[in-house]
């Protein structure tokens, strides 16, 4: 039976309806807020955005790889696409699958390529969850996961990840399960906080889920930030774990629309049987490029590692200064590109972030969009100099808010 907790719809404290008059802070969904923010930023060249949750796109690396690898010439000098340009209709691009298996120490029968984590989740939900059956999803969290489950007709229950540590108690998971629970969905590292769950915790959660016949789905798009890829994805830990990942966050290659899911063959067979048409959005061209990327993954790994080596000390320095002044609380995570500090004395972070935008030309993501007001989400995987200036504005803006 279920313990304390609640079933959810839209996040509390977030405005309802569609924003009007260009006020993107009235957006009901984070995605709408981001779209409005991007339009607003285009009109403010001096503004700084610190809400991005991905490595900045390595466009130079991508262009060089495409120019060097994707197009070749035949013996007559005519251009032709590389051998990686193959059908994805049956089991995905075989070169991409092989490269992913080598990176994550997996086997092809346990891996299926998809357009991304969103596409994979839609497949899983449509295949394995009947309308009215239950899905347990973390809070605070990335509300797109909840929205996808609701759109599939599932009933959504919350699994609290309490501040300040945002961990998970497997006993609490067990108490929140019901005979109708079909999926438990977690992010690891956690979006929005960056907290990383260890293998023991994931195994214990999977064991709890197994008692009601549920699967544990782990969104690991940030996983390579926190552990060596060769250590493997969470799906290695238990037969009822499904791992999801993509090139979007760590590599910053969101334009390729390339993701994958890893699970026991019998679990993948259930998903395919429930959705035999598969992920119809997979692009033959994008996944050919992705195959070349993964065959040259070391190059892209060095890029994101260099970015994080430059930006992480900047965040630590500013966060320590703001904590010392009593403006924020919360430790910077050990790895990743997200920070979710509590703003001391502030309950309405929509109002605060609007103030920061209007007064200091800074955009950070209000915690209301992730289910926890009083916090903001910062991304720090861009340019170190811009991050330094942005965090200086945040410090000044928080001080002004407190002293107003």
UniProtKB/TrEMBL annotation:
It comes from the Bacteria. Residues 100-394 form the Aminotransferase class I/classII large domain. Pfam families: Aminotran_1_2 (PF00155). GO terms for molecular function: pyridoxal phosphate binding. PANTHER family: AMINOTRANSFERASE FUNCTION, HYPOTHETICAL (EUROFUNG) (PTHR43510:SF1). This is Aminotransferase class I/classII large domain-containing protein. It comes from Nitrospirillum amazonense. The lineage of its organism: Bacteria, Pseudomonadati, Pseudomonadota, Alphaproteobacteria, Rhodospirillales.
């Amino acid at each position: 039976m279920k313990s304390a907790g609640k079933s959810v719809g839209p996040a509390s404290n977030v405005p309802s309806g569609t924003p009007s008059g260009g006020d993107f802070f009235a957006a009901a969904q984070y995605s709408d807020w981001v779209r409005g923010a991007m339009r607003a930023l285009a009109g403010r060249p001096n503004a700084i955005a610190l809400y991005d949750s991905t490595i900045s796109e390595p466009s130079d690396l991508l262009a060089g790889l495409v120019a060097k690898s994707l197009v070749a010439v035949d013996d007559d000098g005519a251009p032709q696409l590389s051998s990686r340009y193959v059908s994805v209709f049956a089991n995905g691009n075989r070169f991409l699958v092989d490269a992913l298996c080598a990176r994550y120490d997996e086997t092809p029968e346990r891996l299926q390529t998809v357009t991304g984590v969103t596409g994979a989740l839609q497949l899983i939900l449509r295949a394995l969850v009947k309308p009215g059956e239950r899905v347990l999803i973390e809070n605070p969290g990335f509300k797109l996961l909840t929205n996808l489950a609701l759109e599939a007709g599932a009933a959504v229950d919350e699994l609290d990840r309490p501040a300040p540590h945002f961990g998970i108690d497997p006993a609490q998971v067990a108490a929140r399960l019901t005979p109708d629970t079909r999926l438990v969905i977690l992010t690891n590292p956690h979006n929005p906080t960056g907290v990383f769950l260890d293998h023991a915790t994931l195994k214990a959660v999977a064991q709890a889920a197994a008692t009601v016949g549920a699967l544990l789905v782990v969104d690991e798009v940030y996983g390579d930030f926190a552990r060596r890829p060769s250590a493997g994805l969470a799906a290695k830990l238990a037969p009822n774990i499904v791992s999801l990942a993509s090139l979007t966050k760590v590599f910053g290659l969101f334009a390729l629309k390339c993701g994958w899911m890893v699970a026991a063959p019998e679990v993948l067979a259930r998903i395919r049987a429930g959705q035999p048409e598969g992920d119809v959005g997979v692009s033959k061209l994008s996944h050919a490029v992705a195959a070349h990327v993964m065959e040259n993954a070391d190059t892209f790994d060095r890029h994101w590692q260099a970015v994080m080596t430059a930006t992480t000390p900047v965040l630590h320095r500013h966060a320590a200064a703001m904590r010392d002044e009593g403006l924020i609380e919360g430790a910077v995570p050990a790895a990743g590109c997200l920070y979710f500090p509590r703003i001391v004395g502030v309950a309405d972070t929509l109002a605060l972030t609007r103030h920061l935008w209007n007064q200091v030309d800074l955009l950070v993501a209000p915690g209301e969009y992730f289910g926890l007001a009083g916090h903001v989400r910062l991304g720090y995987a861009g340019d170190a100099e811009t991050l330094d200036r942005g965090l200086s504005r945040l410090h000044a803006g928080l001080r002004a808010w407190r002293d107003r």
